[in-house]
Amino acid sequence: MSQPRQSRALLIVNTNFCSSDGDVVFGTRGGAKREAEKLSNVLSRLNYKVKLMHNKTAKEIEDLYRQERCCEHGEYFVSIISSHGEEGVIFGCDSEPVKLTRIFQILSSEKCPVLTKIPKIFFIQACRGREFDQGVVVECDSGEPKTECEPDCFSHYLSIPPQTVVMFACSPGYVAFLNIFGSMFLQALLKVLEGEERHLALNRLMTRINGEVAFHCQARGTYEGCKEMPCFVTNLLQEVFPFSA
């Protein structure tokens, strides 16, 4: 009797960046490598076939997703990207941008029929802008808060292909925090995957991550008190349990 195919996980972590002429453009991302290795180990224990890649250029990142077209896939495809970024973009180690829509296009039904019915789950640890989230007061016995006119942060809402879930470390326009111990977002993901919450349906699992980051994490040092609010977009049509191995 043949064994069922393993689900696959692709982890891409960029820590060192330079331009084509050798100039350093972005800061080194201390803590990201060790964090990614821990995630790789956890996913392996959950019966994923994991590919962990370090410091890939923009072109190499696209090539890695193209290679998935030729692989045998199980029930799920999970991808974790940890890098510098902007809204809708992550950067290769050559400081060149890769649009997330480009990655999704590579794995679309037209380009990759093998993944058409397989849920594709992305966790993206990268900044989506330059604003710092100061947090909000969730309980207050004072007067009504002042109303301010702010731009619609979802005006550039990212469309995703069918059977795809994307979870971002932060809200549009804001920074995502990382230090030598790791990131708020991926540390929360690790905590969930290592505990009993991994058996939850994916949408509930992601909501738990939101709560963990929102209520239990805040920046220290230079950005003391700043917060982070993950968010996710999904167009799945049914509940899935990708980590209940």
Automatic annotation (TrEMBL):
Signal peptide: none
GO molecular function: cysteine-type endopeptidase activity
Species lineage: Eukaryota, Metazoa, Chordata, Craniata, Vertebrata
Domain Caspase family p10 intervals: 182-244
Domain Caspase family p20: 5-131
SMART domains listed in its UniProt record: CASc
Protein name, per record: CASP3 protein
Taxonomic source organism: Pelecanoides urinatrix (Common diving petrel)
InterPro entries on file: Caspase-like_dom_sf, Caspase-related_regulators, Pept_C14_caspase, Pept_C14_p10, Pept_C14_p20, Pept_C14A
Family (UniProt): Belongs to the peptidase C14A family.
A biological process term (GO) from this entry: proteolysis
